[in-house]
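It would be a great kindness if you could assist me with a short task in structural biology. A protein sequence and the C-alpha cells that stand for its backbone fold form the material at issue. I should value your view on which stretches of the chain appear to form regular backbone elements. The record follows directly beneath this note.
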Amino acid sequence: RDVQNPICFLSQREHNQLLVSFIKIIHTQRRYIEKNCHEMYRTTFCRAIFSAWFTLCITHNQNTVEAFLPTCPSQATPHNCHSSTFGHRTKFSTSIAASDTLSSPKPTPVENVVVLEDADAVGDKVRSIVIEAAERAIAERGYFALAIPGGSILKMLVGGEDLERWTSKTTIAYVNHKCVDMEDGSLATHAKARKLFLDNWQGATTIVMDGTDDGLAEAASYEAKLRALPEEILPRCADTGLPVFDLALIGVGDDGHVGSLYPGRDEVLAGPEKWVLPVDMKSPPSITLSLPVMSGARQVVIAACGVSDKYPQGKSEGMKRAVVADGETIVTFPAVGLRDVATWIMDEAAASKLGEQYLSK
C-alpha cells in the first residue's frame, strides 16, 4: 500500500504471474530444506516464506489473501458454505488454501474413488449420477443446475429414457468452452453437445456464449449470464456468494488441467471474486469456471476412462498424479485442487497405478 513499493504498480495479471513463479521457487526450496536441514531451520524457513507471500499478496490485492489464506498456514481448513436456497453444506477444496499451493494435498479418500470395468460402465455410472442428482434437486427446489465439460464426457450423456421429466427443469452451463461461433461443429462444445444429446433434452436451458473470439469479453458476458440466474435456478453459497451447481462434471487432461485451468498459469490461483475466467493460451482463446466455482458444486464428479493402442493403460499416469501422488500442487497439476471434494469414477485401466487400496475395495 506504500506508493514507493513497485509491486503496487503491477497489473493483476502481472501480480498473479509473479505469484506463480514465487510459489514454484519456494516449493522447490521447501523440499530441499525439509530433506537437508535441522527442524529449527525448517520452521524458520516456513515462517519466512509465508510472511513473504502474505506481504506480496496484501501489497497488491487483499482479495488474493482472503482467497488463499483463510486461516493461519498450519491450521488451514475448508470454507464451509451453507446454501441460502437449501440446507446442504458445500465446501471449498482445502487444496486452494495457501499452505496447499506449496505442498501436496492428502491423497483422495478411498471411498471417493469408484473403479469400474470399462468405459461403458463409467458412462452408465455417470448417466445414473446425473439422473439421481437431477431428481434430488428438482424434488428439493424444482430446478436442476448442471455444469458440463467438453471432451469424452459429452458422449457419456447420450441416451436414457423418460428424459423430459427432469430435462425440462434443467439449466446447463459449460465448465469451459472455446471462444468460437456456437454453431462451429468442429470447435464448439455446444454444437457437439447439441448433436450428441442436447437436442433430445426437451425443455433444457443452456447458457451459451456470444460466439466471438474475444476471451475477456466472453468471460465477462458468461459470468454476467450466470449471475443473472435467480437463486432458485442456480443457488448461491451464503458465505461466499459463489454459485452452487447441483452437479459439476469434470474431465482431467494428461497434464492435469481441469476445465481450461492449466498448470503453471495464473488462472489456477484465481480467488472467489471471479466466477468465469478468460484463458488466452491457445488460438482461439477459451473461458473457464474458476477452481473455487468447480469445487463449490454440491456434487463434483470426475470421470476418466478409455484405452488405445498408443495408451494401453489409458489415463493411469494422470489419475495417479491427480489422486494419490505426493509433490503435486494446483500449480503443477490443477486437478489436485479437487482431490477432497470430487467423486472419481474411472475404468480399471485408468486406476491401474493408484495402488492396491483403491483397487481391492
Notes: The mean pLDDT is 81. The CA atoms of residues 144 and 267 lie 28 Å apart.
